[in-house]
Write a structure and sequence with these properties.
Elements: H1 3-16, E1 25-29, H2 35-43, E2 48-51, H3 54-67, E3 72-75, H4 84-90, E4 93-97, H5 100-113, E5 118-122, H6 139-148, E6 155-157, H7 167-179, E7 184-186, H8 193-198, E8 203-206, H9 208-211
The structure holds pyridoxal-5'-phosphate (PLP).
């Protein structure tokens, strides 16, 4: 478990970028990790976690939350509209708002609950056909539409194309956020979180570098 080392690297990257200590939130991405590894990170005092699948998160986090006060849970995977209700009850933040139908559903749920998780709009910075997210060109319009539904938008999120330099994608996301008056930037994973912090990330999503490799049991 490499939590202390990753925390130290986050703090060093903040300093190197001339940013205040603690300005970057380290989201420990615990999807499909064995319980013992997650427990070790909770026992070490970490409280900010990310999950990709509503069902998996709903199965494991209510018990952890009861046992470890102060847990903050971030939804970072694609969110089906029919899982939105469970998601707003479980998660403190949703990083993957990417289409009007989902935003409308979230707006109705927020109204009924009188509360809303922090919301990030996912941007498909590489315009990859298989990847979720609004296209860069559509971002201004989509952010305006989501705000028009009465939803607070905290920031933007991206997953740069695999095997490419992430830096231009981080820069693009930062520019889109600034243009839309958004302060939150969810970007950077195990391989590139320091570059993301240099580019202004406020939330880095780090899984395998903290917990070790994920074992999908033969699944992709
Ligand atoms: C799995 C995942 C991560 C963490 O990836 P690592 O490379 O293990 O750090 C971050 N963001 C998203 C959206 C993910 O799905």
């Amino acid at each position: 478990m490499a939590l202390a080392e990753i925390n130290a690297r986050v703090r060093a990257a903040e300093r190197a970028a001339g940013r205040p200590e603690g300005s970057v939130r380290l989201i420990a991405v615990s999807k499909v990790q064995p319980e013992a590894r997650v427990r070790a990170v909770l026992d070490a005092g970490h409280r900010v976690f990310g999950e990709n699948y509503v069902q998996e998160a709903a199965a494991k986090w209510p018990a952890w939350k009861a046992r470890f006060p102060g847990v903050e849970l971030h939804m970072i995977g694609p969110l089906q509209t029919n899982k939105a209700k469970v998601a707003v009850e479980l998660f403190d933040a949703i990083h993957t708002v990417d289409r009007p139908s989902l935003a409308e559903r979230l707006a109705r749920l927020a109204e009924a609950r009188g509360a809303c998780p922090q919301l990030f709009v996912q941007v498909n910075t590489g315009a990859e056909p298989q990847k979720a997210g609004v296209l860069p060109d559509e971002t201004d319009g989509f952010v305006a539409a989501v705000r028009g539904m009465g939803l607070p938008v905290q920031g933007l999120m991206c997953i740069p194309p695999e095997g490419q330099d992430s830096t231009p994608h981080f820069a693009m996301l930062a520019a889109l956020a600034a243009r839309n008056g958004l302060t939150g930037l969810s970007m950077g994973m195990s391989a590139d979180f320091e570059a993301a912090i240099a580019a202004g990330a406020t939330h880095v999503r780090v899984g395998s570098a903290i917990f070790g490799d994920r074992d999908y049991g033969g699944r992709a």
